[in-house]
């Protein structure tokens, strides 16, 4: 079967329409689905066709607003809410236990949630907040619900795990400070560097998950594009994005920054979740709705670093992630 070619301008609706037959019957869990974010738009378009869409967030009231907005457009959508605070390992374990109590297998997990860009702060587990919410919490969550993901596999279908990363994975001081991941040091903290390292961890985890699962799970990471979402509008995000030249003095997008709309930003996530054309390239990094491994930083291309981020995160959560 032939599918349309996608690009920078493709929207999530266009991708979901193209893969409607693949999405039908699938159960999908998406983290970080607040309104005015790419996670919401991802859930919105998938809900038109999927058997079940599980939306998550740490704020139950905001989660309810997301469900209402999706059902206003797709009244017959099967939506299930899950309260999930990725900044707390105990909360992650609780949410995962709830998922594991449900009868359905899970065909696709989309790790979309991320923390705001803020000054240095520690979580209840004494982890840096961005790294905890954007990498360590999702790693543990993926590990704990892996049996649900594996249960969706069949001779004709390989379940997928998607990590929403960023082109920023190679910015700043490229790489990951593994010692600082385990024991955060406020004296060397820089908000954007924490963001970059979190996104690098996402790229590395996708590669290593694909490798370690031996064909049982296909994992992908992606750059959604520069998008004026909550992260750019709250916390230290506006000032940092202004410093990088993406926002003007009024903290609004500069025309020359070539930013995407939210529907365009969610498109690459939907491609990573369903496009059969990337089936034979697990671990790939996507940009503008296509595989773009040539854009992966040198640090994130090194298999040794993928192994190290995996082992370091296992040490932090106190559990091995095996198959």
Describe the structure.
The protein has about 325 residues and is of the alpha/beta class. The protein has a single domain (about 10-225, about 260-315), classed as Rossmann fold. It is about 45% helix and about 10% strand. The protein has 14 helices and eight strands. An eight-stranded mixed sheet has the order 3-2-1-4-5-6-7-8, with helices on both faces. The chain is globular, with a radius of gyration of 18 Å. The relative contact order is 0.15. The mean pLDDT is about 95.
Task: Set down the secondary structure blueprint.
Layout: H1 12-18, H2 20-23, E1 27-30, H3 38-46, E2 52-57, H4 60-73, E3 79-83, H5 89-101, E4 108-111, H6 129-144, H7 146-150, E5 160-164, H8 178-182, H9 191-212, E6 218-223, H10 230-233, H11 237-243, H12 262-274, E7 285-287, E8 290-291, H13 298-301, H14 303-317
Parallel strand pairs: 1-2, 1-4, 2-3, 4-5, 5-6, 6-7
Antiparallel strand pairs: 7-8
Strands of the biggest beta sheet: in what spatial order? 3-2-1-4-5-6-7-8
- What is the CATH third-level topology name? Rossmann fold
CATH superfamily: NAD(P)-binding Rossmann-like Domain
Please tally the β strands and state the result: 8
Mean pLDDT: 93
The first-level CATH class name: Alpha Beta
Task: Summarize it.
Pfam families: adh_short. With 323 residues, the chain is α/β, with parallel strands linked by helices. The protein has helices spanning 12-18, 20-23, 38-46, 60-73, 89-101, 129-144, 146-150, 178-182, 191-212, 230-233, 237-243, 262-274, 298-301, 303-317; strands at residues 27-30, 52-57, 79-83, 108-111, 160-164, 218-223, 285-287, 290-291.
């Amino acid at each position: 079967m032939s599918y349309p070619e996608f690009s920078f301008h493709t929207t999530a609706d266009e991708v979901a329409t193209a893969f409607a037959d693949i999405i039908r019957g699938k159960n999908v869990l998406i983290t970080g689905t607040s309104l005015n974010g790419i996670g919401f738009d991802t859930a919105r378009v998938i809900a038109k066709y999927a058997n079940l869409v599980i939306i998550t967030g740490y704020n139950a009231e905001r989660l309810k607003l997301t469900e209402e907005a999706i059902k206003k457009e797709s009244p017959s959508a099967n939506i299930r809410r899950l309260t999930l605070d990725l900044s707390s390992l105990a909360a992650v374990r609780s949410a995962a236990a709830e998922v594991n109590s449900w009868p359905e297998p899970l065909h696709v997990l989309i790790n979309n949630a991320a923390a705001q860009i803020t000054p240095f702060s520690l979580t209840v587990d004494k982890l840096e907040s961005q790294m905890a919410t954007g990498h360590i919490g999702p790693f543990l969550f993926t590990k704990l619900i892996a049996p649900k993901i594996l249960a969706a596999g069949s001779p004709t279908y390989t379940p997928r795990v998607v990590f929403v990363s960023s082109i920023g994975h190679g910015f700043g001081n490229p790489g990951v400070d593994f010692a600082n991941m385990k024991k955060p040091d406020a004296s060397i903290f820089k908000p954007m560097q924490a963001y970059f390292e979190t996104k690098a961890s996402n790229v590395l985890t996708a590669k290593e998950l694909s490798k370690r699962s031996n064909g049982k799970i296909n994992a992908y990471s992606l750059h959604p594009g520069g998008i004026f979402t909550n992260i750019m509008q709250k916390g230290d995000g506006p000032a940092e994005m202004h410093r990088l030249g993406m926002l003007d003095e009024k903290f609004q997008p500069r025309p020359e920054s070539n930013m995407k709309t939210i529907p365009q930003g969610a498109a690459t996530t939907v491609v990573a979740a369903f496009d059969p054309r990337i089936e034979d390239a697990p671990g790939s990094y996507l940009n503008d709705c296509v595989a773009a491994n040539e854009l992966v930083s040198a640090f994130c291309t090194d298999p040794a670093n993928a192994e190290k981020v995996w082992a370091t995160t296992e040490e932090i959560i106190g559990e091995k992630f095996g198959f």
